[in-house]
Structure formats: structure tokens, C-alpha cells
Design goal:
Order of helices and strands: HHH
Number of strands: 0
Distance between the termini: 62 Å
Structural class: mainly alpha
Helix content: over 70%
Strand content: under 5%
Number of helices: 3
Shape: elongated
């Protein structure tokens, strides 16, 4: 019985990690892609829209993830780039 309960716990943790790192990969790919865009081609509305989607997906992640360091780093990445958007918009 103990082995089965351990396996079930691990299965649940792996499912949570899959959700977290799927979003994490999308955010990193998106944010890194912003750095490759030429200034004259910056589409601030597209960036804002993507960041809004990332933020919504982050908020919808299960509560069990919110104490994990990887979640905190993901949220910080989204929040930090969100803070830069008004600056980009004014340029």
C-alpha cells in the first residue's frame, strides 16, 4: 500500500511540474523572442496581449505550485517584463 501511495503522490507531482514547466517554457521563449525584435518592429499590443495571457495562465496554475521556487521565478519573469511594457510603449 505504501508503494502505491508513493507512486500516486509522485504521479501528481509530475503532472503539476508538467503544467508549470510547459508555461515556463512558453514564457521564456516569448520573452527571449522580444529581445530579437528590431525597435521599429516592436508590436507593443502583441507583447501586452502575450504577457496578459502568460499572467492569466500563471494565476490558473494549481495552488500547490505557488510555493515552489520555479513558480516564483516564473511569476517574477512575467511581472518584471510587465513592468517594462509602459516604458517600451512610451518610446
Amino acid at each position: 500500500q505504501t508503494n502505491y501511495s508513493d507512486l500516486e503522490r509522485i504521479r501528481k507531482e509530475l503532472a503539476l511540474l508538467q503544467k508549470l514547466y510547459s508555461l515556463y517554457n512558453d514564457v521564456i521563449k516569448g520573452v527571449n523572442g522580444y529581445y530579437d525584435v528590431l525597435w521599429k518592429e516592436v508590436d507593443i499590443q502583441k507583447i501586452n496581449s502575450e504577457l496578459l495571457e502568460f499572467g492569466n495562465r500563471c494565476r490558473k496554475l494549481p495552488k500547490g505550485l505557488k510555493d515552489w521556487d520555479a513558480f516564483q521565478e516564473l511569476k517574477k519573469t512575467i511581472d518584471d517584463f510587465n513592468e517594462c511594457c509602459p516604458i517600451l510603449e512610451s518610446m
